[in-house]
Amino acid sequence: MNTENPENTENTTEGSTSVNMVQALAEERDQFKEKWARSVADLENYRRRVQKEAEEERKYGAATFLRTVLPGFDNLQRAIQAAKSPAAKLEDLVKGVEMVSQQFETLFAGMGAVVIPTVGTPFDPNRHEAITQVPSADYPPMTVIQEVERGFTLHDRVIRPAKVIVSAAPAAQ
After folding, report:
1. 143: DSSP letter
2. Could you tell me the sign of the dihedral formed by the alpha carbons of 54, 56, 58, 60, in that order?
3. What are the residue ranges of helices labelled H in the chain?
4. Which of helix, strand or coil describes residue 21?
5. Where is the protein found, in the record's own terms (predicted)?
6. Which parts of 85-166 fold into alpha helices (H)?
7. Cβ-based neighbour number of residue 165 at 10 Å
8. Considering Cα of 82, then 87, then 90, then 91, what sign does the dihedral take?
């Protein structure tokens, strides 16, 4: 005689299947929790690394620029030493300083800096800073007649406006 109840067998099978399913879901949940914890740790490590790299860039960002400027600085120092020599000639000093100036212009051009045109051009408040106006019969009003300090653009952005003297209409006589 079979004392097993078919319903009991079915309940036991369903119960073990449910237990297995719960265990499988718990394992999957634990795996997701572990992956999430690793992802959070990876993100935090990434943030720290990016912050450290940004600090390093701020700290040492000028190194490349300094390396390119140092030869001009060295030549300027040599010109100063040569000027202090008893046998120094003014022409040689001027020539040396002009060479240093040319080095800087080449350096700036290599970086994309461009000198803002001044004398003879119409005054542009976006690119020029007027120091004063001078009456002039040689230039139309609001024309740059003298450059006091060079201005520069870098890739179409004004880095420093040119300081200029601008013409005004001549005074009535």
Report:
1. B
2. negative
3. 6-60, 63-84, 90-111
4. helix
5. Cytoplasm
6. 90-111
7. 20
8. negative
Residue 163: Cβ within 10 Å count: 16
Q: Which residues of 148-162 are buried (b: 16+ CB within 10 A; e: fewer)?
A: eeebbbeeeeeeebb
* Sign of the alpha-carbon dihedral angle for 125, 128, 130, 133: negative
Smallest CA-to-CA distance from 134 within 146, 122, 125, 121 is with 146
pLDDT tens by residue, the chain, 173 residues: 455 555 555 566 666 888 899 999 999 999 999 999 999 999 999 999 999 999 998 888 888 888 888 988 888 888 888 888 887 788 888 888 888 999 999 988 988 999 999 999 999 999 999 999 999 999 999 999 999 999 999 998 999 999 999 999 987 76
**At what angle are helices 63-84 and 90-111 packed, to 10 degrees?**
170
Q: Are 158 and 127 in contact (CB under 8 A)?
A: yes
| Contacts (Cβ under 8 Å, ≥6 apart) of 82 | 88, 92, 93, 96
Half-sphere CA count of 82, side-chain side, radius 13 A? 16
